[in-house]
Amino acid sequence: MLGSAGAAVAALWLALVIDRVLGEPPVRWHPVVWMGHYLGWAGRRIAPLAGVALRADYGRFAAGALAWCVGAALVASAALVVQWLAECGPLWVGVLVTGAALKPLLAWRMLRREVLSVERALGESLDAGRQQLSYLVSRDVTWLSESLVRESAIESLAENLNDSVVAPIFWFAVAGLPGAAVYRFANTADAMWGYRGVRGGRVWEWAGKFAAHADDLLSWIPARITALLLALAALRWPRGIVREARRTPSPNSGWPMAAMALLLNVRLGKPDFYVLHRDGLSVKPPDMYRALRLGSRVVGLAGLFASAALLGMSWPL
To answer: Is the N or C terminus of the chain more exposed, i.e. has fewer CB atoms within 10 Å?
Structure first.
């Protein structure tokens, strides 16, 4: 039992090393891209075109829930097959296979690169910074000031630090490769379907409701762990985090974003929706790099705590 836990720990660190050195696999081989293809195909058959009255539509809700469950079952089954194949061979082969399969479910290097790209683009012009930010966020960026562009980038960094790193690692420690894979499916489904009203020419109010709540459920614990890890990375507790986290409409994303705002002592917000740490300073270029340093420490801490949990769960009482 300790041997299998040791293999899981080795696979986790292998995945983190691959992410740091190589980054993302080619698009055509990326499992998260495959998930997106399925969700796009199913979504076009579930969500009605814009122009339909926004009303309670339990048929669309049921269809969305069924499509989500089918997709999650397919993802879990594929991950179980990979996990079974990894366990059939020598231990070192299992580590290689599991680590290689886990890597696409983690995306710290890509997230770090995209946030850095926003700051570098701002060095060229405000319009270039806005354009680069548009690859990170779904909000309208055309009117954002330089400070608001940086705020949005740091918010995206904090939120995706949970979605793309801490939560997949957490679910890998809890339920192995299938756990991490199903979480990434749920998070991708929420990103594509979890909208109120109209997006992309379709009404998602009811078609995407199940996906949104499923992601809320699976992200609840990891989001709070991410906030704790940020505090550990900064070596101090972000006082007032509970109050600030509750300012966002999401039950989860506010935690890492509020922690980041308080620890950096900057104001973060989405205009007309919420402001976190209202008394904080405006975001400056050094704050972007401070946020990235905190994020890098969180990745290492997440790996260490997950390793300790895996080894601790396997140790005989």
So the answer is: C
